[in-house]
Please model this.
Amino acid sequence: MTLPAEPPLPDPPRYGHAPGAWPLVGHLPRLVLRPLHFLDSLPGHGDVVRVRMGTRTVHVVSHPALVRRVFTDRRTFDRSGVLYEKVRALLGNGLATCPNAEHRAQRLALQPAFHPSLLDRYTAVMAAETRALTARWRPGAVVDVTEEAFRLTTAVAVRALFSAGITPHAAEELREALEVLLRGLYTRVVAPAVDRIPSPARRRYRGALARWRTGVAALVAAYRAGGTDHGDALSLLLGVRDEHGRGLSDAELGDQAATLVLAGAETTSSVVAWALRLLADHPDAAARLRGELDAVLAGRPVTPADLPRLPYTADVVRETLRLYPPAWAITRTTIRGTELAGTPLPPGSIVICCLYLLHRRRELFPEPALFAPDRWASGGVPRDAWLPFGTGAGKCVGDAFGTAEATLALAAITSRWTLTPVTRRPPRPVPRLVLSPGPQPMRLTARTPGAATPVDPGPGARGV
Ligand code: HEM
Model:
């Protein structure tokens, strides 16, 4: 496939202002009502654009060189500020939420849990959990694909973290608690008042928090009593010592576990859900994917060993991460004076690296709104054009984990099922902590590998 050549990036990068701010509320109404439409308009005003969210000013960055600078200049751009403080207050201080000053020690402690040699163990869990999920599916039934993908990734996260000594019942209890916590987290970050008003939702959230804490505490106690290294994330965390020889307390262990799952579960589930929707809307890409899966798997279930032989499946995941990066907007706060695109920023300025915009810059990706997995086979992408996992010292520690999980799930589902959206409406992306496609009811049709997929009129929506 040949896509048209792209124009060059502005050099030097330009600073601009988003027009149309309202008194007091700024651009909030536009962000709330048509978030992606508003975001898409920003690069037209500059590579760094000043946006007003209520009384706060933020600087939205979409130029690759500047995105890299914000990610890597950690003495200027810190993981602090209101958003991080709220998430820390709700879920705890772990690797994904700690300020830069604590980051190195935490990263060194957790990195071994993501060593490539452990990936085989995790991928076996992923393959088993995907099989368990689809075993519940029945032909003709309608499932919410977004919910199903979330169920899968929370289950994988719990089993990968606590591989040993957890019964299926305890794992399911923890998974359910997590689901409620992660769903409730965003509401509490944007509207803390919800926690002050008694309601069934608040009861559910508090109940889930208590169950999560008790469940993790019981596991920690069992691991401590057993004294065995199970080689999983919790065992590694139990072995962590600071410079005074002090280990993590039970509460700190719970925080690390919760923030790991926070960082890993909804991000990965959103990739799976988006990919299934994109494939339903692009039958040619879906047919090509099934062709690859049928040829490689010949009707048997996918296993982790198949991953290197599924290049098109991997490209579908890559292209989905480009169009809908789950971590679509990453915030930093300046801790000393600096400048961006020639504009001075005092300490305390809020900078947002918008990966959603970066990945759709037409200077970097020809026909950027087009879902074209082929673009990955036909050559590399410019430096820093595709950063769904961030970059620098805080780059996603679970990138290989998340990619393997999404690829295996997509292969297992697509080789055996055809999913047809029940509504013709295009998805309405929900940019919250993660860029989710929102509820996506789809009808399930079982498919025999190798057989041509029956043509379904589908929702008709081909755009993205
Ligand atoms: C496709 C799925 C995923 C995407 C798109 C993703 C994206 C990201 C991004 C962009 C960051 C950098 C955030 C920043 O710089 O502030 C990050 C950090 C992180 N991610 Fe992921 N992630 C994914 C899956 C996972 C998984 C599966 C795990 C764990 C099991 C995980 C754990 C983490 C942690 C702990 C951090 C913080 C790393 C650090 O600060 O050193 N992520 N992720």
